[in-house]
Amino acid sequence: MAVTLKKILDFLVYSNIYLSFGASVVALTTIFIMKLPLSFELLFIPFAGGMLIYNTNRHTDKLEDKINVQDRVGFVEKYGNYILGASSILYLIALYFAFIKGVAVLLVTLLPVIIASFYSIKRLKKIYILKNLLVGLSWGVTPLLVGFYNGIFSIAFISLSLFFAITFFINTIIFDIKDIIGDSNLKIMTMPIKLGLEKTKNICYASNFVAVFLLLISVLFEVLPLSSLILLPFIAYIFFYIYRAEERKDGFFYGVIVDGEFIFLFFIILVLNILQI
Predict the structure, then answer these.
(1) Dihedral of alpha carbons 72, 74, 76, 82, sign
(2) Which CATH number is 2-275 given?
(3) Is 145 exposed, middle or buried (0-12, 13-18, 19+ CB in 10 A)?
């Protein structure tokens, strides 16, 4: 039973289904906070984008992964082409959904993949901090996607976009801690390599406090509704994994716990919906 569960979990993590579901949760959270109608297409678009982006990245990052995540390399070599092909089809469907909703939705759907292309294929990830900013920006556009999809553009969606951009900026830095050895061997300069573990974690703490401040000030000035405070436990979860982050910690911590921040957020929304709060 335990072996079967591990295989299922490995498949969800290595195929990026687990992580891409998180992109859908960002959209779902925005829908919940802004009290917008639930739409399958709107949840599907960021999921499909995440699948294409991260499965492309698995192919371009094989050298680093052979050092940092050897099990994942074996999975990618065995199933990677099939999953990438399926991800491409899913993304084409997402582009169709975006196209029929208008130019703004289509452009926001294309933006993360364009950013990821420069990040992975053009190897901009080798430029210090730029990769963290680019990945954070890619995730941050999802609330804007929700707004445009519903024909709305307001400072509230910008505030949520900045919030999620900051939190996923932190996520990428935490993963750089795990990848210190591989990145160092390939001369990829990251924050943990340049500043060390403790200073890197302090920057993550500071960034998370910025996210807290942005959220609270947005609620205080009624930019965001009170329902936005559901993000406070999410921020607390991030503080927890920053504290626990260590160089070369087991893959379960990073692949399941750190990337599980959005699963945690999903369950918060699920419970609140059940309680009709």
Answers:
(1) negative
(2) 1.10.600
(3) buried
Place of tokens 């703490």: 205
The pTM assigned to this predicted structure is 0.90
**What pLDDT digit, counting tens, does each position of 155-188 carry?**
999 999 999 999 999 999 998 888 887 777 777 7
First to last CA, the chain: 37
Q: Give the pLDDT confidence of 221-239 residue by residue, as tens digits.
A: 999 999 999 999 999 999 9
- Per domain, the residue ranges of the chain are 2-275
Contact indicator for 51, 116 with CB cutoff of 8 Å: no
Mean residue pLDDT of the chain comes to: 87
